[in-house]
Amino acid sequence: MSPLSINLIMHAQKTQTISHVDWLHTAKTLLTSRALDDLEEYDLVKQKKVLYQFSARGHDMAQILLGQILTAQKDAVSGYYRSRPLLLSMGIEVEQCLQASMMRQGGFSDGRDIGVVFNQPNHDGACVLPMSGGVGAQYTPIAGWAQAVEYHRNHLNNSDWNDAIGLVLGGDGSVATNGFWSALTLASTLSLPMFFYIEDNGYGISVPSSFQTPGGNIVSNLESFKGIKLFSGDGTQPQVAADLIQQANDYIRTERKPALLRLTVPRLNGHSAQDTQSYKSEERIKFEQQHDPLPKLKAFLHRQNILTADAWDKLAQETKDAVYHVYQKVDQQAHADPKTITRHAFSEQDEHGNEALQQQGGIHLNKPTFPPSSEEVVAESGRANMVTAIRRTLDYELTHNDKMLVFGEDVGAKGGVHAVTLGLQDKHGDQRVFDTSLSEEGIIGRSVGMALAGLLPVPEIQFRKYADPAEEQLNDTGTMRWRTNNRFAAPMVVRMAGGYFGCGDPWHSQCAEVKWVHAIGWQVAMPSNAEDAVGLLRYALRDNNPTIFFEHRKMLDHSWARRPYPGDQYMIPFGKAKTITEGDRLTIVSWGGMVHMCQDAIDQTGVNAELIDLRTLRPWDKQAVLDSVKKTGRCLIVHEDNISAGFGAEIAAVLAKEAFFYLDAPIERLATADIGNPHDPQLMAAALPNTDTIAEKIIELDKI
Amino acid sequence: MSKTVDITLEDAQTEGTTATVAEWLKKVGDRVRKDEPIIELETDKVMMEVTAPAEGILTAIHVEVGETASENKILGTIDTEAGSNPSNEVVKDLTKSAPKETKTDLPQKNTPAAGPLDHPPSKFKSPAVRRLLLQHNLNPDHIPGTGKNNRLTSRDVKAFLDQTESDRTQSGDSQFIKHTHMRRKIAEHMQHSVQTAPHVTAVFDVDLSRIMAHRTQHKKSYEQRGIKLTFTAYFIAAAVSALRHQPKINARFHEDGLEVFNHMNIGIGTALGDDGLIVPVLKHCENKTLEHIAQGLTEMTDKARTGSLQQSDVQGGTFTISNHGVSGSLVATPIIINQPQVAILGLGKIEKRPVVKTIDGEDALVIKPMCYVSLTIDHRALDAYHTNDFLSHFKDFIENWEA
């Protein structure tokens, strides 16, 4: 506050219901927000110094009041593209906001993301979870955060987490999204300390709110919804808005139950700088302008003797000048170096060989000590199938890592539809091993929040195909480290079951693992046998990157895949293939459910072939494959996934470039045709590669 | 004598659920190894294995497929001291072996439409083959191909290299001198030349008295002008005259015709001692006087001796002279033609010899400085007629040299 403002303050008469509001802070922040909106929209956009611009006029006052309730050490908030006033209210500097929108170094992503896709790491006060550019994706991560709060408080007895809640902002458009409903289910069924804040301005870009919920009022439609307390009111009246916010906040913090507050606000500008609002009538626009909260706040503060109108005007000018001053400073600052653009897709090491950890997210910031690990097999007697091997690994890691949670549909009481988690809930309790609602969006979304709250989520996707509804959250998890420039990361191990079984079908037998290799930021492991499953899973559970761990349905119990349990210390680093047979006539590269068929085919033909089981697809052991193909000159790639643009195509392209002068024959691929997986077993046997077709290809390639 | 071991379930192996036999993985009479899976059991939850407690022959099965296997039941027996049963021994030989025939019951797929690699032309060279040929300076024509349609495969090249390697290292009492690049190039060139052209040689002898006299007279004044006057200069001059007389000898053989050159770029075979030989070319001799020729030779020889010959100095020759006699040989035949030329001239050692000359109608024995001159021709392009006519003219030019 400037000295001038202090001199003009008259004695404040605080009213009863708005005792916690700092009205001067509110005024200053509101004026700052408006000044930023004006500067960007009317000046910087025209100069092309800001390319994507979202003003928040009308939303601003209520958000600024809302920001002031985030007082607990471990509060978290996630919003969307019109949440800047909230962030300013939390104390985020104008300079950082302008660095973000002007794409300079600093900001929230060093120019990698749009300026309004916010994030703010914080371990000693409310943090801002990395927002998604996709509307609706903000909800379930906050539900996950709220669930993590309760886990830290109640199960880990960490008092830092007392009183904490998760706050999520969304517009009226977002109440139609999958994420909203999934989070609503989570919050209300699990009784989570979660604050849903819906700013209803009547429009989702140009689409009226009557499209998003019947009648346009989500609160009236949720009246009978159990397990969540509802509040609704006018977000443009300072006293009313402050009061409702306080009530909702008090309820959630004391009851540890969710609440939803809907405040109506006007959107006093287009959706973005590009939007001319031609779809709004003149009456509507006039109506909106009449409900501008700014003059209402000004009048309120004058009436309350907190700030005179003259003092307000002076403050407005000071703020405008201050903002402009910051702009001039930021305008001189550098953009990020283009040479750094590929950094931080995955966890990296710094120049001293230490891991360059993210600022928030995952378990490694606390420097956990794991039990010793080794790449040496210490075989037990007898053979275990992959089901048992995975279960034992999960069990051991759960025992030694109290941040680890295992969950998914049917994972708890039933022990998983593939029996992998059988008995784990009995042993570790339902706070650590539990069932979830039937929403993959919710399963992965909450995993994001949990990971950002310092836990290790191990969610299960029951069948590969059912990752479809979770794809947005999965993609956003993968990109998180890169798009926040290593401020945030959400390591997790997503277990997915798929591949052929006794029969097939397009829903339960999909592999499509290449999708996650192609996505940004995901590691992909696809073990072919029980021993590898143990080593790879243990690595994934102790690694600082998100991993897709593919459990092949047929190989879970296949005779070929059974191995002696290799020991609780056994770990295989990703990117290390295994050479199963050595040979010099040709190289076969495979993974997952095809490896045993390849080995059988080699035995059948008697050809002296080298069989390489990649084990992981990202990272993959490029060097092993290159060394082998340079030796043999011939390569056959066999995978179950569809052939076009399957991972075999990537291997072939790399070989064509890096082993070109060593190739003695064209690179061959054998895979399923570009069709779904058939249900009838004999159709499935014909559609997928099998021992005989692989043998045929081996002989053909050997003879060329 | 035999020792029988019972096959039973381990304590609590079935974890309190019912287990039925799903499949016997071995049959009576099969040899089993210790810990090898022999029975698959099915329980409520999962499939389980029963492994062999010892090595031996499976002698009896007591629980059939579908029957319950409980902890107190003997499921089968193994005889640990029975002799091996060769009829069922399955020892997979995974050591290096040639590809076996495929099983006859492999599904016969329709062969797809013929693509470019279904019938690869046998001359196709893969990137690996090209690299190996280049790296090891090999001639692909010398290596048999065993790929489809006799394609030369990288295996073939590697096998060839291994063979030459092992041939080479066979004798214990020899010294192995690895080829230099020049040696390889010479070997390649000589072989190629001999394989390309049918070599025929004619030999004349030449009296060098006149040019010797000329040389003695003019040697000093040439030296003063920095020019070394050698016999080779005279030979070149004579060759130029003879080529003018028989131009077809200054030519290149093509499949459908003879390319006769208007210019005479004459190469001079120059020995480099143990290191090999090189053939610098004196360009456009057709217009050169003896002095020019001698000057050109002097420069060329200096360059050759100091190792400063350029690529252009050894290219573009149309005819070659080999002065082999300088190191003592009287005659050399055949002298291998410098491809793609059609003839090569050889000059033997200059020696004083007794010769018969008819002077004033009387035969007399005189002593003359003589040397043998030979012309080796590519008989595809030339015949004895051209050869002897050339040599006659050459001899004539030398023996009737005028200052």
3D architecture notes:
The complex is a heterodimer of chains A (704) and B (403). Chain A is built from 23 helices and 20 strands. In chain A, helix 7 links the parallel strand 3 and strand 4 (194-200). In chain A, 37% of the residues lie in helices and 13% in strands. The longest helix of chain A is centred in the middle third of the chain and has 23 residues, at 309-331. Chain B is α+β, with helices and mostly antiparallel strands. Chain B has 7 helices and 17 strands. The longest helix of chain B is centred in the last third of the chain and has 17 residues, at 290-306. The termini of chain B are far apart. The model of chain B is unreliable at 84-116 (pLDDT under 50). The chains are: A alpha/beta (704), B alpha+beta (403). Chain A binds chain B through residues 381-383, 385, 387-388, 419, 422, 557, 559, 562, 581, 584-585, 603-608, 633, 660-666, 692, 695-696, 699, 702-704, and chain B through 25, 35, 37, 40, 45-47, 49, 51, 92-94, 96-97, 99-100, 102-103, 106-107, 109, 117, 120, 126-131, 147-148, 151, 153-155.
Features:
heterodimer, A: 704 residues, alpha/beta, 23 helices, B: 403 residues, alpha+beta, eight-stranded mixed beta sheet, four-stranded antiparallel beta sheet, 26% helix, 23% strand
